[in-house]
Structure formats: structure tokens, C-alpha cells
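Severity: low
Component: inverse-folding endpoint
Summary: output formatting inconsistent between runs
Steps to reproduce: submit the following C-alpha cells with default settings.
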């Protein structure tokens, strides 16, 4: 049996070659606590254990760094399922914060258990947290028993770093976890009318009914909560049973706030059932039909959460395949919940569409993608199309393609384009229309490459930023129109071709005539000119011969004066030449600067679009110019840092520093070194910044001191961390002009001082944030202002 903290220490010992592979497998396979077994067998000395423990604590993967995210997830789950009262939950949160420390911090459910507010069966069934849970690595076969299993985490193998999976042969049936084995419940009656019982569940009304079964509103007395109970009544339908089992298998592996949660699977007198979260509200179609259509702001609010849920499902390898308004429930607070994974598939599985007995393609025709309508292989792009269709429906009040004839709908989906959204609703913004029509593109390649990209654009519209999607080009629009109107485009092309041939022939014939006439006229003009020129030359010769002698005399007199003038002119010309050379050098410098600016802008643009081939082309041009390479390499490094590729960012930052130093470059290098755990090197660059630019750049000075505090925190020097945080606050106080990055750093400084119980200093930081916002209220900074106000209220409460 092994704890999560011990797994990280063992991984460090394995990487340092203190342990052999056989010893690691033996430690993980024992039922004795791992640390005691290691010392008992003499695999590690206490000094080696302490060394590995200290190294593991400094890495970002150390479990205590996920304490906030763990408690946030637990808080949401406990609040949603109402496992304890709000007062008890707030008391436990405050106790968690007071007991937090870098070595080990209790989680929220552990505090609630200790206080007696939560029962062990609620932790296992409601939260899915299990004790002594078996895991196995499918790659190297390593097996271990984890002392406490959190289902929302991903566990990696100590030996090969691959994902550990649950050992299915040893997992017993439980609610809320990815097991799908049946629990048989005895019942004396299977009468499914309202007010009756089904097993232990008390039925309180029917929510919906299909060809195979029904969904009921039910009360679960064990967990004291209302649930949605889905029952299969027709157990003779094998295809329906398979679809039911598939829906359970897929739904049980998804844990997201905007996906209807799966609770339990079982069977009552041969009738399979499963329970899931009961969402109080109405489905999206009912909401749209009641309001005719929704506002753009409301649509973006709903879709941002739905797309986030779909993005999460795609990350788990699940494709929904039937996203439609009926499968999106809106609760009383306006939050959407995605449900019904009955026809979903796991990515990499069978790609062709299955047909029902009636020959209809699986899915909803009005919101089906073109590849689904044609019965082709489906993928993540299928869900992207459906999301666009749902947005179209909410904004216009009608689906992209409607009608009563299913086959006509399928044909239109596969071949035609929907009516432009803005022609149906002029209040829709242009960027939102571009997003919707990109999702509805016929070719999968023309849609968003992932749900994450769609989520980025939706958030960009909400935040007032530029979106990634662009309207189709003129050539693509023409090509698509030709594909949609082949007969008319063929007639037009033929007419234009005939007209061009006629014009070419007409111009060719007339051009030859014009050339001949022009040549004859030119010859006559030249002949008359030559005769006249000969006469004038003879007269000029006689006059020049007479004046030659007079000019010769004057030239001799002028010769000496010309020499003096020539010397003076030579001096002036040299001065002018020097001025011209200086101007030319200045122009060349300006041209070089312009070339650099255009190339660096093109490089940054290509990097922002992820077009690496074009970006490396501009990088080679800049390298060949050998001009301001420190800025060039710094921009490339920032791209890699934004994409969390710290090793490549580190390499380019080293190249940038070799070409010359500037503040933003050193700041980025410190962040990169911290990300790669190069703590000594990070400290060296911090001191270089303070020596070179400290007094010249107060905003970055505050950020550098904050990064220094992060470095001291990783080293475990709390007192030094406090000093650096206060210096960071002191530097940022005097900054003029509000910038987003300064607000973020100042909030982080205040939050960390608050965690260190430096309440007065933390209060100063949050007051600066509030003062900045009030002096220059920017909508995008509203969230920072609200966070600062919340912390000020907490500090005020502590003072009282």
C-alpha cells in the first residue's frame, strides 16, 4: 500500500538510481505501508529518503501544489449534492486554510470526516474517493494499491511515466466511479407508477419515455437526495441493452460541472437501471421555443460552458455524436448541463455510422454533420458542427436545415449551405456569425481543429479580443458557389470563354493594320527630318567656323578664371558628397529598421497563428540580417513559453542573451528557469536584472521580486519569501499606468502575503489594486478588482 506522496518520492529515488526496477515493483506490491517496508528491507537509508523527499517537494507535480484545485473540486461536489450544510462547509474551508502547510495539508473531505459532518459511505459513493484502490500500468505492468484514490486526478507510472488505470478485476461496484458492473436489488414490486417504489428508490413522477424505457424523478433514501432514474423496461431488445450499457460506460468516466453526473448502475428483478444527477430546469429547445430566440450574450454564456464540457469529453477520448438542444438542460441558475451519451463513441473505435432497424442514421438529422448524413467516418469535427448548429438554433430560433422529410434534411445537410445567420437576426455580431459558420463548414478541415479553439474564440468575443476564425476568402466563396450551381456556372464560363476568344481575334487583326500604318507614317517623318537637318547643319557650320576664332580668344582669357572656380567647386562638391553619404547611411539604417520591424511583426503573427513553417522562414531572414537578434530570439522564446515548451524557450533565451540584454528577456528567462527547476540559474539572472536594470524599470522590478519570492518558496525559505514579496509590493506601488500583468502580479503578491498571515501588508497590496481600478476602470480588470475587495473583506473580518 502506497500514498500519493510516497509515489513521488519513489519516482525521485528511481530516477536517481537509488532503487532498481525489481525493488520498485516489490514496494508497490506489498500490503505494508511503503515507507516502513523500505526501511525494514534496507532499500533506502533515511538520508536518501530525506534527499528524495526534498527534491520531490520542489517539483510542480508535488501533491500539495494541487491542494487548492482539489478543495475547489470537493467544494463544488459537496455543495451540488448538499452532503453537508453551508455553515458546516464554510467552517471546514476555514479550518483547511489554517492547517495548510507545504509538507502535508488535509483536504476538505478529511476535515469534514474529522468533524463528524460527513460519513465514510458519502465520501466513497458521493465523491468517488476510495481507500486502498488498485491501479495498474498497461504499458509496463506495474501494479500498486493507492491508499487514497481521487477519481479526478491522473496518476502516472513510477517506472515509465504512462497513465495508471484502475485494475478492473479488483474493483467492486460503487456509485459515482467508472465501474459499470451491476448491483442487484431485491424488490417485491416493479410497478412504475408515480408514488410507487423501484427497489430502494421512491418514484415521484415520470420525466420522459422512449421506445425501450423511461426516466423517472426518484428519491434515494440512502444518500438522501433526488435523482434521475433511467430504467430499461424492454430487456429483449439487445441493441437497446448494448446502447444502454455504452451510455453508462461513457457517462461514468466523465466528471465535469457541465455534464450530468453519473451516480450508480444496478438491476431490479432483471430490469437494468442507472441513476444520475437530477437537473431542475428545462431543456434548451423548450427555452428557445418559449423565448423565440435568445440574446447573443445569453447564447455565449451557455455555449462557453457547453463547449468547455465537450472539450473535456474530447480530452477523455469521447465523441458525443448527438449534441442537440434536447440534450442540453438549463438549471434554475441558468447553467447548462450536457447529457445523453447513448450514441457517443470512444475516439479510435469503430468509425462508420451504425443504422437502426428502420435504416436511419444514428443521430438527430437537424443537428447532424455532413459526414454523419453521408454515413462516413466521424470524429471530433462532428461535435464541432453540432455545436455550431445549436448556436445557430439559439440565435435564429430555427435549425440550420429543417423540414418534415428526413431524407430531404439529410441531403441539404450534406450538400447545401444554411441561410446566413445575420440575415435571420441582424442583432448577431459579425464575429459571432463567423464563428457559427466556421463550425457549420461542409469540409471537416474548414471547421475548428478542436473544441479548445472554438472555446478560445467564444471567450475572445466575451472579453472583446480578436477571434482566430476568419470569413471565407473570395476565391473559396466563388469555388463553393460554382459547386452549388454547376449548370449556371458552366453556362457563364462558356459565354466568357467565347467572348474572350472573339476579343483576342478582333484585337489581333486590327493590331496588324495599325502597325503597318504607323510604320509608313514614321518613315515619312524621318525622311523630312533628315533633309531639313542637312540644310541646317550646313548653315551652322559656316557660322561656327567664323565664331570659332572669337571663342578661342575668349577661352584663353577665361581659362585662368575657370581654374580658380573649378577649385572652389571641387571643394563644395566634396562637402556635398559627404552630406549625401551621411544621408544615404541614415536611409539605409532606416530601411534596415523597417525591414526588421516588418519581419519581426510577420514572425510574431505567424507564431500567433501556429504557422511554424512560415514563422521559421521569417526567422531565417532575421538571422541572415544579423540585426537585433536578441529581440528576435526573445520573441520566439515567448511563443514556446506560451505553449509550455520550456526547454525550447530556454534554448532561444540563451541565444537572445548572447546577443545582448534587455529587461523583458531576463524576466522571461527567470520564469523559464523556474519552470525547469533551474533555481540557481534563475537566481543568477535575477541578480543580473537588479544590477543592470533595477532602478530603470519599476514594473518589471516588482515582477522580478515576485519571481524571487516564488524561488525562495520552492527552497522552503519562508522568511526570505516574505522579504521579496514586500519588496515586490514596494516596487509596484509607485508604478504609473495600470497594466493587466501588474494587476495579476500584485494580486498574487497580496494572496501569498495573506496565506503567510501578513495581513497588513496584504491589505496594502489589495488596496493598491482597488485604487488602480477606481482611477482607471477598465471592464477587463473588473475581476481583479472584485478579488481584491473579497480579500479586503476577509482581512477586515479577521481584524474584528
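Observed output (run 2 of 3):
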Amino acid at each position: 500500500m502506497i500514498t500519493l506522496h510516497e509515489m513521488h518520492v519513489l519516482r525521485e529515488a528511481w530516477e536517481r538510481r537509488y532503487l532498481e526496477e525489481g525493488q520498485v515493483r516489490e514496494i508497490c506490491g506489498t500490503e505494508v505501508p511503503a515507507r516502513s517496508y523500505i526501511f525494514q528491507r534496507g532499500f533506502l537509508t533515511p538520508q536518501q529518503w530525506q534527499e528524495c523527499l526534498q527534491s520531490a517537494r520542489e517539483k510542480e507535480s508535488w501533491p500539495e501544489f494541487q491542494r487548492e484545485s482539489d478543495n475547489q473540486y470537493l467544494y463544488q461536489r459537496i455543495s451540488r449534492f448538499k452532503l453537508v450544510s453551508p455553515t458546516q462547509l464554510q467552517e471546514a474551508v476555514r479550518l483547511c486554510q489554517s492547517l495548510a502547510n507545504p509538507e502535508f495539508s488535509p483536504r476538505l473531505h478529511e476535515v469534514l470526516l474529522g468533524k463528524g459532518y460527513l460519513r465514510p459511505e458519502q465520501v466513497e459513493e458521493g465523491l468517488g474517493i476510495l481507500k486502498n484502490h488498485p491501479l495498474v500500468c498497461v504499458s509496463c505492468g506495474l501494479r500498486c494499491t493507492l491508499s487514497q484514490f481521487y477519481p479526478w486526478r491522473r496518476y502516472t507510472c513510477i517506472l515509465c511515466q504512462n497513465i495508471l488505470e484502475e485494475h478492473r478485476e479488483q474493483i467492486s461496484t460503487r456509485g459515482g466511479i467508472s465501474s459499470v458492473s451491476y448491483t442487484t436489488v431485491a424488490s417485491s414490486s416493479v410497478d412504475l407508477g408515480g408514488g410507487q417504489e423501484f427497489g430502494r428508490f421512491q418514484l415521484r413522477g415520470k420525466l420522459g419515455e422512449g421506445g425501450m424505457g423511461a426516466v423517472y424523478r426518484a428519491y434515494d433514501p440512502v444518500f438522501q437526495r433526488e435523482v434521475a432514474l433511467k430504467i430499461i423496461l424492454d430487456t429483449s431488445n439487445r441493441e437497446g441493452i448494448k446502447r444502454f450499457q455504452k451510455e453508462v460506460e461513457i457517462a461514468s468516466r466523465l466528471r465535469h460541472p457541465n455534464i450530468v453526473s453519473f451516480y450508480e448502475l444496478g438491476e431490479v428483478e432483471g430490469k437494468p437501471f442507472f441513476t444520475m444527477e437530477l437537473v431542475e430546469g428545462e431543456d434548451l429547445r423548450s427555452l428557445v421555443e418559449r423565448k423565440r430566440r435568445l440574446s447573443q450574450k445569453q447564447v455565449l454564456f451557455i455555449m462557453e460552458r457547453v463547449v468547455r464540457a465537450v472539450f473535456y469529453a474530447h480530452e477523455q477520448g469521447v465523441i458525443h455524436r448527438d449534441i442537440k438542444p434536447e440534450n442540453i438542460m438549463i438549471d434554475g441558475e441558468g447553467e447548462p448541463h450536457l447529457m445523453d451519451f447513448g450514441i457517443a463513441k470512444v475516439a479510435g473505435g469503430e468509425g462508420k455510422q451504425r443504422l437502426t432497424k428502420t435504416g436511419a442514421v444514428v443521430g438527430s438529422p437537424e443537428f447532424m454533420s455532413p459526414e454523419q448524413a453521408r454515413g462516413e467516418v466521424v470524429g471530433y469535427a462532428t461535435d464541432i458542427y453540432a455545436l455550431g448548429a445549436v448556436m445557430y438554433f439559439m440565435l435564429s430560433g430555427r435549425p440550420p436545415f429543417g423540414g418534415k422529410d428526413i431524407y430531404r434534411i439529410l441531403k441539404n445537410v450534406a450538400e447545401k449551405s444554411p441561410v446566413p445567420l445575420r440575415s435571420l437576426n441582424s442583432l448577431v455580431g459579425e464575429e459571432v456569425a463567423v464563428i457559427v459558420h466556421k463550425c457549420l463548414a461542409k469540409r471537416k478541415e474548414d471547421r475548428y481543429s478542436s473544441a479548445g479553439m472554438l472555446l478560445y474564440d467564444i471567450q475572445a468575443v466575451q472579453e472583446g479580443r480578436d477571434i482566430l476564425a476568419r470569413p471565407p476568402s473570395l476565391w473559396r466563396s466563388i469555388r463553393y458557389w460554382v459547386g452549388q450551381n454547376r449548370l449556371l456556372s458552366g453556362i457563364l464560363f462558356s459565354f466568357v470563354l467565347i467572348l474572350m476568344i472573339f476579343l483576342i481575334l478582333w484585337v489581333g487583326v486590327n493590331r496588324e493594320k495599325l502597325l503597318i500604318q504607323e510604320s509608313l507614317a514614321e518613315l515619312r517623318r524621318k525622311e523630312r527630318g533628315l533633309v531639313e537637318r542637312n540644310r541646317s547643319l550646313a548653315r551652322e557650320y559656316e557660322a561656327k567656323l567664323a565664331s570659332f576664332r572669337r571663342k578661342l580668344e575668349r577661352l584663353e582669357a577665361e581659362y585662368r578664371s575657370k581654374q580658380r572656380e573649378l577649385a572652389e567647386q571641387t571643394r563644395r562638391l566634396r562637402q556635398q558628397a559627404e552630406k549625401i553619404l551621411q544621408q544615404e547611411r541614415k536611409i539605409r539604417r532606416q530601411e534596415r529598421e523597417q525591414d526588421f520591424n516588418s519581419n519581426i511583426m510577420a514572425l510574431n503573427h505567424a507564431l500567433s497563428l501556429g504557422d511554424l513553417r512560415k514563422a521559421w522562414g521569417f526567422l531565417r531572414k532575421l538571422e541572415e540580417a544579423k540585426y537585433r537578434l536578441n529581440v528576435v530570439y526573445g520573441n520566439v522564446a515567448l511563443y514556446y513559453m506560451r505553449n509550455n515548451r520550456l526547454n525550447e524557450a530556454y534554448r532561444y533565451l540563451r541565444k537572445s542573451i548572447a546577443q545582448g540584454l534587455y529587461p523583458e528577456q531576463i524576466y522571461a528567462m527567470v520564469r523559464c528557469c523556474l519552470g525547469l527547476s533551474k533555481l540557481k540559474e534563475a537566481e543568477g539572472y535575477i541578480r543580473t536584472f537588479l544590477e543592470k536594470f533595477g532602478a530603470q524599470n519599476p514594473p518589471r522590478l516588482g515582477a522580478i521580486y515576485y519571481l524571487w519570492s516564488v524561488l525562495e518558496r520552492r527552497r522552503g525559505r519562508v522568511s526570505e519569501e516574505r522579504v521579496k514579496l514586500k519588496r515586490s509590493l514596494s516596487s509596484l506601488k509607485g508604478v504609473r499606468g495600470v497594466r493587466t500583468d501588474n494587476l495579476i502580479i500584485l494580486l498574487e503578491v497580496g494572496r501569498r502575503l495573506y496565506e503567510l498571515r501578513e495581513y497588513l501588508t496584504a491589505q496594502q497590496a489589495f488596496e493598491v489594486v482597488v485604487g488602480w481600478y477606481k482611477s482607471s476602470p477598465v471592464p477587463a480588470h473588473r475581476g481583479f478588482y472584485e478579488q481584491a475587495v473579497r480579500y479586503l473583506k476577509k482581512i477586515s473580518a479577521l481584524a474584528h
